[in-house]
Amino acid sequence: MKVSLTTSDYYDYYFNPVSIFEQEITASDQGTFTGSIPLKNLNPGWYEVDIRLDEEIIVRGSFNVETYTKPAYKIELESGKKAVFAGETVKFTGKAAFFEGTAVPNLSLNYNGSQVGKVKTDDKGEFIINLNTSYDGSGYGYYYPTHNSIYAVPELTEEGEIEGGASVMVFGPKVVMHTEANSEGNQGLVKITANKITLDRINNSTAKSDQDYLGDLLASAEIKGRIYETIWEKIEKGEIYDFINKTTTKTYDYKEVKNKIQDISVITNSSGEAVVQFPIADDKYYTVELELDDGEGRISKESRFIYGKMGGYPWGSSSDYYHLVSGKEGENSYYKVDDKVELTMMKGQDVELPSGGENKYLFRLAQRGLRSFKISDSPKFEFNFEKDYIPNIVAKAVYFNGKTYIESESSSVIFDRQTKKLDIKIGLDKDSYKPRDDVKLDVEVTDNNGRGQKGEVNLSLVDEAIFKISDQSVDTLKDIYTTLNSGIISTYLSHQYPSEYSPAEGGGCFLDGTKILIANGKTRNIEEIKPGDEVVTRDGVKSAKLVSAKVIKTYKHSVGQYLVINDKLRVTPEHNLFVNGRFMIAGDIKVGDSLLNSKNKWEPVFSIERQFGKFTVYNLEIKDKSTFFAEDYYVHNQKGRELFADLAYFGSVKTNSDGKGSANFKLPDNLTSWRITYQAISEDMGAGNGTKPLYVKLPFFVDVVGSNEYLSDDKPVIKLRSFGEELKEGADVQFTVKAPSLGIGEQKFNKKAFEIAEFNLSNLSEGEHKITITAKSTKYEDEIIKAIKVYKSRLTRKEANFQQLTTDTKLTGSKIGNTTLVFTDAGRGKYYSPLVNLSYSYGDRVDQKLTRIKARELLDKFFGNQDFLQSEEIINGANYQTPEGGISLFPYSDSDLSLTAKVAFLGTDNFDTNSMKQYFYKVLDDKKEGVESASIALSGLAALGEPVLNPIEYLLQIDDLTELDRLYLALGQAYLGNKEQSREVLKSLLESKGEEFKPNIRLNIGRDQDEILAATALAAVLAAGLNDDSAPGLFGYLQQNYTKDILTYLEETAYLTATLPGLPQINSKFAYTLANGKRTEVELKNSETHKIVVNSDELEKIKFDNISGSIAVTSTFDIPFSQDDIAKDNNITLTRSFSVGGTQKMDFNESDLVIVTLNYNFGQKSLDGCYQITDYLPSGLRVVNRTYSRTGLTYNEDIWYPYDINGQKVSFCTYKGPTLIPVKYYARVVAKGEYKAENALIQSMQSIDSFNISDLQKVKIQ
């Protein structure tokens, strides 16, 4: 079998992931396998692992690589009640302890969330917080129940991020209304059911879910309210002018006009029910506000909306769907082998379809292909669940009513995997261990009947502190028996009336009602999305640009549980969400994490609930992008799992026929609780898993708070402290510190138990150092060695190198890190995509129409794309040529001189050439026209073959010609054959006005980007005609940047017309061999690229052969730099500031939460597209991953979250646009001292040459 590793950053031309690591593995005789993937040289990010048998993927998983600092200890909080009514006081009890159980006494904590304050742990590490809840009667809708939370963090600095939190459900009124609103004809209906609220089941843990709080029905209760009628009034506010299409469009504001039309008063019947009914109009919508008094002055409020026909959906109501019903629910909905399955085809919730007569039914069973079928005259279908159907069989029905065929939803009949659940017992030879102890671990595996099972048990021991950063979820039984799809690719119905419903099948992740952002900026329920619909997503993980993407498949499935995140996102635990700048599974999310919304803002997670039962869920498959927005949160359409390092042991134990086995291993130095995660598989595919702690502790130990890396200019303070179950309050402790490589002999500090000793480091030298810290108290002693790295600088920037590929090519790249290699067709193929884009240029301007026609002709001539001629377009030149012979932009506009010349550059097949010549000569004869007009007219005449070389060369002798005049005249020279003098003009312009933004070039002529692009476009046409080396770079700049009020379509088409005939026609091919001997053959067609990432060793040893055609290779990598040795692009600027509590400052206290602000700006001549902003935090600060636990804010629209965190390096991506939003993010203080704040940098993702930095700063923490 082959293991391949890919990452979201690397995709080929067709969005297929590019493998960055491969390995062969062998399965055991039981079919199990283990392996490892080296994380060295992997950048932080999301990686996917595929394990293939031949070409079939049999296992797919994912993991994150990230830099992190483990928390030294944990804070745990628990609320005294799970639910209360507002006004009650809730007692939260907490404890601070190391992971092996040792208490952290006398620890000062800050707490916030629903209440703010300070508290201190006692000698057992315990503390109490009393939360006072209050009632708020304002607002309508689902205000109650809400979640009140408390989060505790250490007041003073810690190296790792430490926090603890808990929440309580708070209910307001003691009554609740459940409402259903809809319209029937011209009537609006609101059905109401009123109940009392009881919290007993939630608090005694007998509730089915957190929503199980309904008490007795409320009879004879008065419900009051109001009905409002709303329309939108259109108000003209101004006009905007479109410089491209030369049109003026009115703009409007829309004012909501809301009028009360009726007061409501209804009384509930004996069943607690009431109905509100009222007439509605098609062009309005209505708001129904309802109020129910609980008898204690608290009002339960609900607000419902009803729309006229303008609010209806065209695909019908939920009662129109057809599906198969089994009659089983919840835990009883699964089947054992040989169980009888009984299905009935239904319409909607309760309409059973008819039997006999013309009614016929076709039932089908499938699993990765058709298994069986049956024809019947009854809607009922029975069969036995066979062993071959494990893990599931997909049933589907087709109903023929005598006129048309109707398909049902697919229904997955699922195996009861609990019959295969194994019981695993883990035994340890000690209750707790010391560092470096030997461990003997015994395993016993039994089935449901207690019989021993022969098989294999995988064991992993991971530091529990790692799971405080990001937890791990394991369900081996579920993974093995994951449901399979039907394998039916398509179906065909011969007699089909137009259908309003299209069923789907497969694995799903979101519950019905989940709002999906669609292409028109609105939302639609996920169950209403169909293949072919357009949804909105991000252009990429690192890009804030929103784009449309097509839904290519929908899925529907049943699950046993889901999560409710922030009271709105209902998602299964295994689904991938974009959290804290990376994808991770929903089951691993914690309160305080941040989710990304469609506005590129981070929303903290403030509540997570878990619901159990049987639920229908849905998912979407998105073409190319694989992502979309659900409830305005950025999500992936796949599931994944976390993988962690910091292992004490990883291996497998084989059990005998009695189900017993054992393992022996040695522990490392960590004082912690190791989480033993065990997963067992038996020979008959039974499975199970679980966890068990293994404690490693000492009666007395030393703890060190300090960073693992510093800059040589830093002056850090390291904190030393002592703990232990045998350490008593007031006991004397002596610390000794030595670090010979830093010139530190022995320095001693005397403190009392649990007190902090501070040690100053200065005169740090570049390199790796070891600091030995010893602590003594009475008969106890402990020593640890802390390794640190000292850098002169952390600053790196992107560098790119461009080479023509040959068999002798020696690639340039990183000497220590990874290098990205991108291979492109440097021949004819690289112009395929630009031609396709031009062939679809939209609009009725003459340059748009002519471009479409010429581009499609070029595609057919050079790429054989007949498809582009099927919608053949003809331009009637007479409509765009004025009586005087010039070309007009629109049929109704005047002649445009420069436009006429550019049309002449392309040829005049569609126009009267003689009239065009006369137009140019008339311009030359007009004494009112200046040199600029004469230069343009002469270039046009030259393109038409007129003998005007002498006047062109005469004008070129004039001293005060503008650069554009010289360009037009040089074009005229080239068209008339005087290419050498024309080349000299181009060379002179490139030397004086040319700017290189590798791999592109521009002429910096004019006041803004439009004028630069106009000049660069003319230069590209000239360079193409001269076959000059600058031509591809000039054309590349046009492709990477965007005009605002002009178009350069004609110049781009003229460039391609001149360039394509001189390029080889063959497709580019090559092969490369990596250091491991693996050889890969690649063919590049039609603008394709091939991308790989290599480490420094592979870069040195990569070999190329079998090269045909013209291939360019770009290597991109990070290089160190200093502020004194870079060329800055002054078209972009970046400044940085630090602030606390709204005040800018550079001196901080230990308890400060710092906001780092990065202000950037783009000049009118700056490059378009995405820019990467990278900040390097001072060594005494750390990025805050979970802002909610420290700020108590559920949402802060100003705060950004970096897409990449690599130690002190944090990276963001922003776009050049009309609105510039400063980058702001939180940082926390981790250590006292003085620290260098190295320059932040901004760099164009289009060209590494567009680059600038902020000023160097220093911060002080005391």
Automatic annotation (TrEMBL):
Residues 647-737 form the Alpha-2-macroglobulin domain. It comes from the Bacteria. PANTHER family: ALPHA-2-MACROGLOBULIN HOMOLOG (PTHR40094), UBIQUITIN DOMAIN-CONTAINING PROTEIN (PTHR40094:SF1). GO terms for molecular function: endopeptidase inhibitor activity. This is Intein C-terminal splicing domain-containing protein. Transmembrane segments: none annotated. The lineage of its organism: Bacteria, Candidatus Woeseibacteriota. InterPro entries: A2M_N_BRD (IPR011625), Hint_dom_N (IPR003587), Hint_dom_sf (IPR036844), Intein_N (IPR006141), Macroglobln_a2 (IPR001599), YfhM-like (IPR051802). Signal peptide: none annotated. GO terms for biological process: intein-mediated protein splicing. Residues 322-469 form the Alpha-2-macroglobulin bait region domain.
